[in-house]
Amino acid sequence: MRSGRLPEVPEVWWMRWLGDEAGQQRSDRSADDSRTETPITLLSWSGKIVHLPLFAHVGPYFLPKKDVADRYFSTYMDYVHPALMILHRETFTAQYHRAWFVRPPRRWLAVLNLVFAIGCCYNRFITNKGSGGDGSLNDLIFLNRACRLSLNENIFLEPTDLQQVQIETLAALYLVISGQTDRASTMASLALRSALTLGINIWPEDRRLQYGSKEARNRLWWSVYLLDHLIISMNGRVSSIGGGFNTTLLPIPYDENHSRPEVAHVGNPTPHMTWLKMTLFQTDEERRTSADGLATCEPSASVIFHCEVDLATITHNILNAVSSSQAPLEHPSCQNFRIINLSLSLDSWHAKLPQFCRFSESPQSDRLRLNGEPAQFFCGKVRLALGYYTSRIILYLPYFAMKCSRLPSHPKPQCCSRSSSRSRTSSMNTAAAINLITNNGDPVPSNNARSPSIRNACSARLLDGIVLTCLRSACSVVDIFPSSPDIKWVTIYTPLWSVRHYLMQATTVLLLGILYMNRSSALDSDRVSDSLIGGGVFDDGISRTRLLGLIHKAFQWLYTLSQLNPANKLAFGSYNTLTRRIVPALAFNT
């Protein structure tokens, strides 16, 4: 079971655990199987194997042709900036248009070259014409220019400023997109420390600083936070950012033109505190006020960014909770309360979403529904949906695995009752779970006050709800993607830097669901096992056939993503090998 900090990439760790569990069901395999296979402990991947060349003759102050530069610049602003508002769009765009007439400062030019490098990568994937049709090494040339300008051996000898934070954050983002997760982790940590050094994680009280400048600093901080959060979720490490590090507030849900009249009232500290408080720390009344306020906001990328940041703070706490080294030492009732509190925070965040951001049937339902207007915010809804369902998976996967590990590999048939749960939602599961672990609002009585059989029944019912919600979330992640893999679609509509991680995480849960179905169905040989989820709980919407279909779809997408960079290819190869070790025990053919 997962306990504390993972020693490696989470998906690999979980797949190895799943392989060990599935191995208990392979006793019927021939002992003299002569097939030579790579030991499962050697299967992993790391971005460190990919070489990043350094070019000695790159002119750091050279600018590309204006039409090429415009293409890369607009690609970045259209597809990357809405998700990570590292730059102030209006200010930087005005500076960009002047750069061809007045020589720009060194650090600003480093920022621009990193924008070109990222835009070049995106353009290559969208057009499928090499590196934007202008040479296969264009993005590396831009990266080398940025390194020569501001990421060289003098980086620790120069004072840190906001542009240096932008440079380090953009460099980390480029490395993540390129599959260099280990290098990206180092660079993101540097950006985080630089941001903390400048204090942009603290809301400035200086009245001389214009509110627009304050908000630009605020969005830069949250972009650093989002990128660091993404990387620690990918490499299985506990973040160094605790609750005390961050005293700033959520980004305002308005466009970047801070001179607009509706922005003026946000600068007032009192409503500002209530309006932009994180869901984690809001009271019920504050959450209702916040939801009403978001509903009145004009649809924009800034509203989606506001919601993404709010969700990331919840997921960040989930990661720290499930990865804490103290988690295995806690009493089960404390673990139950943590699950419920974090699940309630996710429910509250989901219920607060304004209509144009909604990706489910209703605020009370988790069932995926991405159709609807306005269509121009479809990519924002996809990002919110992927983040939300993945947060559910991160929270519930350790407990789902615990539930599965408790089932015997070859159980004796016994009676179990069937109850339909097709219409249940995670919110309803959360409410039911609260009733299981509370008594009229008070904590569960001590062990002496409640019989072991009742406690065990409550724990089993709570885990049953966790199993269903975790599987539904994994199904929803895969359902987001079209039936036929398409690099252009995934580049335009998803966060390209994290989509592989989301798919692999969901696939792990689906494979665990198959193993769990096999073990659970053996508990009652007289029942149809195709829709059995476990513990006497059924969901007609989650069948073995559906899970196998989603696994096949996910692997098609992972194979397509493996063509983007060598790290993705290595990841798919390792993951495919791990899965094929588990496949015989899971009783489906590939």
Automatic annotation (TrEMBL):
Pfam families per the UniProt record, alphabetical: Fungal_trans
Keywords carried by this UniProt record: Nucleus, Transcription, Transcription regulation
Top-level taxon: Eukaryota
Protein's GO biological process: DNA-templated transcription
Keyword Transcription regulation among record annotations: yes
Example of a GO MF term: DNA binding
Domain (Xylanolytic transcriptional activator regulatory) ranges: 184-257
Protein name as it appears in the record: Xylanolytic transcriptional activator regulatory domain-containing protein
